[in-house]
Amino acid sequence: MLEGSILQRLEEAHHHSAQPLNLGVYYKNTLVALCHALEDFILDSQSPPLMVTAFQRGKWYLEEAERYRDLADKSEHVVLMAAPDAGFDSHPTSKKVNVALVQLNPEDPVAEEWHLMILSPTYTAMVLCQELSDADYGDNKPKTDLERKFYGFWTFEPELVKESVELAIDHVSKYDPPLAQMMTTKVAKMTAESATRQRDDLDAVVSQVIKYLQDSHKTLNQPQQTGNFKGFQDLSENIVSNEMQAFLRMAQLLDATDVSNPMAASEVASMAEAMSQLLDLPAWQAKRLYLSGLLHRVGLPDVTRRNQRLGSGNASQSPVQAETLADQSAPKASVLRVMPQLEAVSKILTHQREAWDGSGIPAGLAYDEIPLESRIICLLADFQQKMKAYKQYSTDKNPTVKALTDCQALAGKRYDPKLLDALSLLVMGMQQGMSLQAYRPKIATGMWLVDSGSENKNKTTS
Fold first, then answer.
1. Residue bearing the bigger pLDDT, 10 or 241
2. What span, in angstroms and rounded, lies between the C-alpha atoms of 168 and 157?
């Protein structure tokens, strides 16, 4: 990692923190699709952003300059950083009043980075990477553009995006202090405004990311693209892995915005893993249940998500957001329906609010009609939420047992009685010192989760 680069400075700041960065390796095609998806959502966002981007060379900017003209029209300000090349500052987009060029010294480590930062009161997103060095490539140096690899990460997290923008501003100040001051003022204004604005719908952003990655995957499968490329399978998996990352990052952000229960997904997934052992589930089903636990907030039934949006006074959606979320008829869980590899998980999470006696939603299924994994997630998500609430707001000395008692009172009504027996054993183990490791997964290495989502998807469980 290049000393003094924005990625290196950010990684150093988080190296010993409770939430270190989830860094991974990305092929160039994957990054292009990601950046285009995140950038193009600016055209449908509810507020104009400050966009900060770095190109390794000015010529890469010139290839994107026409797109950036449209993005600039919808942005508060666009700051472009790159080592100067012929024509870098002569394109009409570069002359727009809200576009600023920062010509980096060739030896500047930021000149070797590929980054995109989007910050507005309602939408935040970021890609932050740098290409592998010759030493990293070793004997496998890229022979084509398709083979180029980059190290870094991407995210929707507002605080992380803001922190990165501030590092970028500090870097810009070495070249253009007035521009850096203007950027600082805009960040402060947007930060204050974000406290009173409804955020753009994350479902729509993730759906767009998935669509662009899937389109990139289709293009990759063309014979002219794959003929002489030995790493085709690796690149194909890299694209699909990033589709999964989009959902995991969405789940992480949903947890982060719930200050009273910021580890819900990780804790439910951890308990689901333990329940799989107690119920002696096969490995493929245990992995699928674990993934369902991680995504259970993302995958709430459509009717539940729709009611939550209406109840929160959500602002009117843009045409793209409305189109993405309009088809609520399909019995699949929210945004997960856009990724075929998650068909089985989508079905599980669609029915996580069903009740054992048939009084739940969305389909009013009862008893063994409800998928086993759906019943487990329903019980564990409610138990985790009750346990967290008792720990925070009650003087009860044993919140775990109290939460279990509440769930047992609904045996045969909301919950499968057999699963409550298993939960009782789990709680007994927790009372005797058994530790459940609620950890956030390594998001950047998620292909095994993709496999668990689709493996044995046609098997029915009850």
1. 10
2. 17
115-153-214 Cα angle (round to 5) = 90
What is the greatest pairwise CA distance in the chain?
73
Q: How far apart are CA 380 and CA 284, in angstroms?
A: 19
The neighbour count for residue 248, using CB atoms within 10 Å, is 22
Question: What are the tens digits of pLDDT across the range 283-306?
Answer: 999 999 999 999 998 877 644 444
Phi (first) and psi of residue 125, to 5 degrees: -160, 155
- 374 & 433 share domain: yes
Q: Residue 167 in 3-state DSSP?
A: helix
**Is 213 exposed, middle or buried (CB count within 10 Å of its CB: 0-12, 13-18, 19+)?**
buried
User: How is residue 55 written in tokens?
Assistant: 């190109």
Mean pLDDT of all residues belonging to the chain: 83
Segment (H or E) for 187? helix 177-194
Most confident of 70-74, 237-241, 445-449: 70-74
Residue 332 CA neighbour count, 13 Å, CB half = 14
In the structure encoding, which two tokens stand for residue 94, read together?
Answer: 């570069």
Residue 233 lies inside a defined structural domain of this protein: no
Residue-number span of the structural domain to which 38 is assigned: 6-200
The reply to whether 94 and 154 lie within a common domain is: yes
Instruction: State the DSSP H helix or E strand holding residue 109, giving kind and residue range, or none if neither.
Output: none
Dist. CA 103–CA 94, nearest whole Å: 12
pLDDT at 389: 92
In this prediction the pTM is: 0.78
Split into its structural domains, the chain has a count of: 2
Which sign, positive or negative, has the C-alpha torsion 242, 243, 248, 250? positive
The pLDDT tens digits of the residues spanning 340-387 come to 788 889 999 999 999 999 999 999 999 999 999 999 999 999 999 999
> Is residue 196 domain-shared with residue 255, that is, in the same domain?
no
Distance CA 58, CA 76 (A): 22
Per the domain annotation, does 316 fall within a domain?
yes
Strand order in the sheet with 24-27: 24-27, 149-155, 124-131, 113-119, 50-55, 77-82, 99-103
Question: Measured between alpha carbons, how far is residue 206 from residues 62, 126, 437 in Å?
Answer: 27, 13, 28
